[in-house]
Amino acid sequence: MKRLKCDLSPELTTNLKLADSVRPECCPVRNRIPYDAQCFIKDISKELNELYKRHDKHFVKSKRIMELAQPLHPKCRFMPKCACPFKKTIEIVPADPPSNTRTEQLALPTVRRLLYRRQHAMDIGDRIGESILNRWLRYSYMSLYSRLGNLQPMKKPVKKKKPNPKETKKQAAYIEKLAKPKVELEPETPVRKAGDYSVKRLKKLARPKVVEEIVKTEWELTPGMKAYKASDRIKEMAEPVSRPNVHTNEEPEKVSPNALTYKPSDRIKEMAQPLAKNEANLAGDVKDDPFSISPNALKYKPSTRIKELAEPKEFENTHIRENPFAISPAALKAKASPRLIELAKPKGS
């Protein structure tokens, strides 16, 4: 059998195989295995047997797979090297526990999926898979996103109690109440102030007016109309009504008997008398000399505005041209259209 250099056999001497008295101080052994490690052999062998059983149960051996499983270039396992051969000093820093960053927390599987897989592992009796899933569940429950979602471990559903007749009757009455159609409340009429207008009224007025066309059916002489016999009442109502013309007086000079026997009251007699004008008012209205000018009018001094208004207004007579033979500049620059030239030609040319 070919032996690798990294094999910890007695033939090869490494720093890990050296005794404490011979090993140099620069190469201390960390996490030393205790000498009384025999107490762990029982537990290790038990877990190893479970792994073997799980491997035999799930792994299907195939000749081709076993051939592909052999490495082409076998390498030795990792062995910590001593820092003595290196020229530069190397500071050995212990590995810190991984920090729960956002990427690591997003990479965790969801709680619902883990619970489903754990239930499947419990059903098939896979204890190792159940322990691994329990560890993942603990990490997923403690993640930031599970805390924000307030995810709680699943509990068994509480079996509902059977309702008694009183609760059943109450529930049926409530369902019947909910089944009734909802009654729409009429909107309250808004109180309009002075100057406001109703939007509903404006929309109604803005609609186009619908004019219904009245279609008259053509008159037809039916057989029932031919055999119809009018009653005496219908014949009486069919005769034209003769009314006297009260607007024309046949004898305009004749006085009615009521007017001849009428007796006027005192108030009518008072109003029938002619209006008596006051002599003082008559003296003030009529002047002795109508062509005389009053002294106040002679002393009056007109203001500038009155003088301005007293001047006659000048009107320009636009109906008569000063030079009737002059031609406007616009007419000199005008270009006649073909239609005007055609109309300007005398008839018969």
Question: Which secondary structure elements does this structure contain, and how are they paired or packed?
Answer:
Elements: H1 41-58, H2 63-69, H3 102-107, H4 111-124, H5 127-141, H6 144-148, H7 165-179, H8 199-206, H9 223-226, H10 232-238, H11 257-260, H12 266-272, H13 279-285, H14 295-299, H15 304-310, H16 329-333, H17 338-344
Structural write-up:
By secondary structure, the protein is mostly helical. Helices cover 40% and strands 0% of the residues. It contains 17 helices and no strands. The chain has helices at residues 41-58, 63-69, 102-107, 111-124, 127-141, 144-148, 165-179, 199-206, 223-226, 232-238, 257-260, 266-272, 279-285, 295-299, 304-310, 329-333, 338-344. The longest helix has 18 residues, at 41-58. The protein is elongated. The model is unreliable at 1-15 (pLDDT under 50).
| Major sheet details | none
Determine the strand fraction and express it as a percent band. under 5%
The run of helices and strands is HHHHHHHHHHHHHHHHH
What's the total number of strands?
Answer: 0
Which structural class should the secondary elements be placed in?
Answer: mainly alpha
- Gyration radius (Cα, Å) is 64 Å
Poorly predicted ranges (pLDDT <50, ≥5 residues)? 1-15
Shape: elongated
Number of helices: 17
Oligomer: single chain
Helix content: 40-55%
